[in-house]
Amino acid sequence: MQEGKVVAYASRQLKSHERNYPTHDLELAAIVFALKIWRHYLYGEKCRVYIDHKSLKYLMSQKDLNLRQRRWLELLKDYELVIDYHPGKANVVADALSRKLLFALRAMNTRLKVSDDGSILAELIARPMFLQEISEAQKNDQDLQAKRKKCEDDTGSDFKIGSDGCLMFKNQICVPKNDELIQKILHEAHKCWLAVHPGSMKMYNDLKKMYWWSGMKRDISEFVSKCLVCQQVKAEHQVPSGLLQPIMVPEWKWDRITMDFISGLPLTAGKKNAIWLKENQIYGVDLVKETEEKVKVIRDCLKAASDRQKSYADLKRKEIEYQVGDKVFLKVSPWKKVLRFGKKGKLSPRFIGPFEVIERVGPVAYRLSLPSTLQKMHEYSTYLCYVDIVRILHI
């Protein structure tokens, strides 16, 4: 402390060999620990140590010291240190947390547990939020009512009645087949401000500690897969969609044209700095003008090479087709104007939408119903939206 204000706090657990120290050495070890971690504060300054072990006050004048105490005494001599005795009963500020009343802990729904080293650990027990709603819904579920009646007669059953009157299955609350209630539980476990949208497996492992219902894992997996925020923000862990579309050799001149723009050139007299380049792809008749046999051999070799490249590429891709009316997301990572929270990078969504497919214009090309701000975009990638708008809850 300095001028009545705390500068820093420190604490740590005892090491295995330190547990065998006598009380005198343990109290001295605490002083050595404080001097080492706060050396930059204490070295060269006059400081005062308050301790509740009175014998340490006469440490400097003691004659019989063990090797450990002598070694630590050499460290203490580097500091302008004064050790004062302060009784433990009078040290109410430092011991306030360790002397916290037990009834205050019980009010916080805690459970006290004694560890192996003798220390007392307070465990905070989480209570389900929809306990009253679940209890009322169980009364309207015939299957759960039958199991309740059975567990009253059979004491060895996995089902039992809890202290709050709810039917339990292996210490888990039985949730009736009520879609609205199940959706509330899933919504709270996945979309509340403390949940941070966990994956299906983590969400299942968390929920199964408190709840149980038939088809629980399936419902959780379906709910997470249809989360709008997860589909827009989370990274894709799938192979690219759409098989490779090789360019076919055209049969006639000007049957297939490629275009490109070359920009950033010096300004011309007409104030132009770009070139629009158009090229006609090579076609079959002009490959070789010698004999038809050589033309056929070259054409077959080109087709074999193209098919081989396509087969290799398709091994790491998947075929997918959209129907008119499907909802798809639009990948916007190359488009820097789509921001989230006013920042770029990790907080920007990877996808926006969903948008409706209105027309199929090619084997892997579709026309979407885009807003006016996105009408100028002509090159993008999409993936299917699994969001069920009806199932979005507003609690």
Automatic annotation (TrEMBL):
Q: Which residues form the Reverse transcriptase RNase H-like domain?
A: 5-79
The Integrase zinc-binding domain sits at 179-235
Entry-linked Pfam families: Integrase_H2C2, RT_RNaseH, SH3_Tf2-1
What's the protein here called? Integrase
Q: Which domain of life is it from?
A: Eukaryota
Which InterPro entries does the record match to this protein? Answer: DNA/RNA_pol_sf, Integrase_H2C2, Retrovirus_Pol_polyprotein, RT_RNaseH, SH3_Tf2-1
Q: Under the GO molecular function aspect, what terms does this record hold? A: aspartic-type endopeptidase activity; DNA binding; DNA-directed DNA polymerase activity; endonuclease activity; metal ion binding; RNA-directed DNA polymerase activity
- Lineage, highest ranks first: Eukaryota, Viridiplantae, Streptophyta, Embryophyta, Tracheophyta
Indicate the segments forming the Tf2-1-like SH3-like domain, all copies.
325-378
